[in-house]
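re the bet — no i am not wrong, look at it urself. input seq straight from the record:
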Amino acid sequence: MNPNFGSKRLVVGAHYGARDWLAQRVTAVLMALFTVVLLAQVLFTSGPIGYDKWAGIFSQQWMKFLTFVTILSLLYHAWVGMRDIWMDYVKHVGARLVMHVFTLVWLVGCAGWAIQVLWRL
C-alpha cells in the first residue's frame, strides 16, 4: 500500500507569483502617477525650463516626498523583475546568488545616489 495515497502535496513558496505580479502592477501605477504629476508641473511652468525651474519643481516638500516614494517603487519594481529573471534563467545556485547580491548592491547604490541628488536640490 502506498503511504502517500491521498496525501496533499506541500508546495513551498506558493503564491509568490501572485504577490509579485501585484507588486509589479502597484509600483507601475505609482510610477505612472508620478510621471503625470511631473508632466503637469513641467507643462504648466511658464518660460524656458532650465536648472532653476527643475530645482523649483523638486524643492517643494510634497514633490520630494512623491519623488522619494517613486524611487522606492522603482527600486522594488526593478528588484522583483531582476530577481525573477535570475531565478528563471540562471540555473547554477552559486551564480544566481552572486547575481542577486550584485543586483541588491547596485539598487541600494542607485537609491543612495538618487536620494542624495533629490535632497541636494
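see?? Helices lie at 16-43, 51-59, 61-89, 93-120. told u. also The chain has a mean pLDDT of 87. so pay up
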